[in-house]
Amino acid sequence: MSFNSLGLSDALLKAISKKGYTTPSPIQQKAIPPILEGKDVLASAQTGTGKTAGFTLPILQLLSQGKHLSHRPVRALILTPTRELAAQILANIKEYSTFLDLRSTVIFGGVNQNPQVSQLRQGVDILVATPGRLIDLQNQGLISLSKVEILVLDEADRMLDMGFLRDIERVMKVLPPKRQNLLFSATFSKDIKKLAMGILNHPVQVEATPENTTVDAIIQKIYPVAKEKKTELIIKLITEGNWKQILVFTRTKQGANKLTESMISSGIKAAAIHGNKGQGARTKALAGFKNGSLTALVATDIAARGLDIPLLPHVINFELPNIPEDYVHRIGRTGRAGASGEAISLFSPDETVFLRDIEKLVGLKLPKENIKGFEPDPNASTEPIKQGQGRQQRNSTPKKPKTDNPNRSTSNSFGQRRPSQNNDRRSNR
Ligand code: AMP
Question: Which among 243, 405, 406, 418 is least surrounded, fewest beta carbons within 10 Å?
Fold first, then answer.
């Protein structure tokens, strides 16, 4: 299938070809036609599937065909959980709308609101926003959403995880009731379904299982290791493997800082990216990682969500996530766009429950490889460690990882893979 057959305008096709895209990704093939028809869409898709173009391209087309009002009120509102993702979506919109007369801007917290307000005053057709700053400006009477025709909730699951439900509900109250709604989420918990049911009107459901080539290209390895030797092992892997671009996940912000410091002392150019870092530091770290001046980016799950880092060769789970879906999001950072990638997890005995839940979710027994000198004590306790910082801590009682949700979209993407396939691929390398 080609982009031509999706019914997109010449101006968009020209921008797409300028970007170098030749074929629409599965989520684009499935989502673009119903969105162009004005339907509500409920899409199951994670970062890396091309979902951003999947909703921005048809929105641009609909808005450019619609009635232009001279004062340019916001006609499309895109809500998204993180500042980085918001900035990336805007960057995509700007590229795709090169040949259209549409204005777009982004608003998010953590930075001075004045430049954002002055952009809004000049009139924008498309607004990308994180919920907190949107509500803030709305409360100050600095933004009008009464002309919104299209609403997108992007990464809805992560917005709920980050506690944005109340803000989303507040936004709904100030939107016109008649509008087109699009909801994108990687996972579908009960809460997401409830949210979707409250917002969407007879939605068309679409699902993007990552292309087989992409999924199969991810080689997953588990290295059992004594907890206290993880730092030494990761430094050894990076330096001896001469790896150049590694995204590392830790469970906590403190863990990310500590590991980054150890890496830097060992001569690895590293930076941490997490919620306690200011916007400037986050943008700088991401830019350094993308342009190659940083070798390792150490991130927490929330901070990494939505980062667009194409063709990442290595993802390392310094610690396994206690939410199994996060494992799928993390490893989705490698092997993207048909490129091969390696997802390595350093697994200590206290993470036994987390690994069991992950394997249950992905439907695979992940292959373990011992590295001489780093093996954990066979008698070490397999009791889970205490929950760390982050979103899990908002609950007073530690949350058990959810593994009993039969509707998780992520299991569809990975469930068909058999361990033998994975091992075969591993031995091919
Ligand atoms: P997303 O899932 O929206 O974060 O997109 C992941 C990456 O795929 C981004 O770098 C996009 O620029 C890229 N991309 C989106 N659509 C296509 C396409 N049809 N062909 C090639 N790359 C694409």
Answer: 406
Per the listing, tokens 């960057």 go with 91
CA dihedral 3, 59, 409, 365 (to 10 degrees): 60
Nearest CA to ligand 1 atom 12: 50
Q: Which residues pair with 344 in a beta bridge?
A: 221, 316
Scanning the structure block, which residue is given the tokens 């001046």? Answer: 293
Give first-to-last CA distance, the chain, whole Å.
32
Residue 293: strand, helix, or coil: coil
Tokens of 399: 């949350």
Task: Write the pLDDT tens digit of every residue in 247-273.
Answer: 999 999 999 999 999 999 999 999 999
- Pairwise CA distance, residues 425 & 370, whole Å: 18
Distances (CA, A) of 19 to 12, 93, 286: 11, 12, 21
Q: Which of 346, 354, 344 is nearest to 388 (CA)?
A: 354
Q: Which atom of ligand 1 is nearest to the CA of 88?
A: 4
Q: Is 304 helix (H, G, I), strand (E, B) or coil?
A: helix
Whole-number Å distance between alpha carbons of 75 and 77: 7
User: Could you give the count of Cα atoms lying within 13 Å of 3 in the half-sphere of its Cβ?
Assistant: 22
At residue 157, the 3 state secondary structure works out as: helix
Ligand 1 touching residue 48 (CB < 6 A): yes
Q: List, in order of start, the domains of the chain with CATH numbers.
A: 3-207 (3.40.50.300), 218-362 (3.40.50.300)
Nearest CA to ligand 1 atom 5: 50
Give pLDDT, residue 365.
Answer: 84
51 lines ligand 1 (CB under 6 A): yes
Q: For residue 329, what are the CA distances in angstroms to 52, 53, 323, 350?
A: 16, 19, 10, 22
- Dihedral angle computed from the Cα positions of residues 235, 239, 245 and 246, in that order, rounded to the nearest 10 degrees: -20
Helix then strand count (H, E) for the chain reads 18, 13
The pLDDT score that the predictor gives to residue 332 is 76
In angstroms, what is the span from residue 19 Cα to ligand 1's centroid? 10
Nearest CA to ligand 1 atom 21: 21
pLDDT of residue 428 exceeding 80, the answer is no
pLDDT digits (tens, 9 = 90+) for 87-120: 999 999 999 999 999 999 999 998 999 999 999 9
For a ligand 1 pocket test, name from 6, 29, 47, 52 the mutation site with the most ligand atoms within 8 angstroms of its C-beta: 52
**CB distance 243 to ligand 1 below 6 Å:** no
- Nearest-angstrom CA–CA distance, 315 and 311: 11
